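pasting for the record
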Amino acid sequence: MRATFQLPPLTLAAAATAPLRIVVVGAGFELVLGLLAWLLGFPLGIDPFAHWFWTWQGLAYGGAAILPMLAMAGAAFQAPGKAWQELRDFLDDVVAPLFLRCRTWHLLVLSLTAGWGEELLFRGLLQRGLATVVIAWGVSPNAASVLAVLVAAAAFGLAHPLTRLYVVGATVLGLYLGLCLELSGNLLVTVIAHAGYDFLVLTFLVHRARAREVGRQAAEVGREHLTDSVGGQNSLGQDVAATGSASGDST
């Protein structure tokens, strides 16, 4: 039995005139997160762009960093167990239908803004800012980095409360992205990895949902044809029986 899920009011409103509204609301929300990170950095003395470097190497590293994330997503889609199945049902029944009418560029806009806004907030502001503060307290840089990665990953996971297992998965991805930032020293790497991962997973979910919809419609058409065929046969049988009865009466 598949689990049933209730869409929150904001999601219903956003999807009311999909795909345009879902893109505007979703991308606008993610852009606000990036703006929030920038504004919060002022009083805290933290620049979330301090570790942003636009380089071809950063783009390449970001693209390569997508692959392990996709491997984790693939494992999640194949993992046995009720909790994993409920997560897949949630993605199929709630997440994918929201984007069913979206075109590729809609998904790309949503993914790019999500990568930019969330990485500025969780990695650029929280992770690097916390590490800077902790180091100022006399903690070693390595210990400060570990603590900052853990805190930012936990916050990232809690910011995605779709299901309990989804929170755990988002936390793991947050740990991975935090490690990518620490190793590369370039926020561009995590932005590209985050955006690319979101885009590919969303595209996969949408194509999967469309295939299921086509299969459902084909099954309905097949049932209608079968019903019509059975109905026609019954009608023919009744006509034959009626004809035979009439012949008998005439004799």
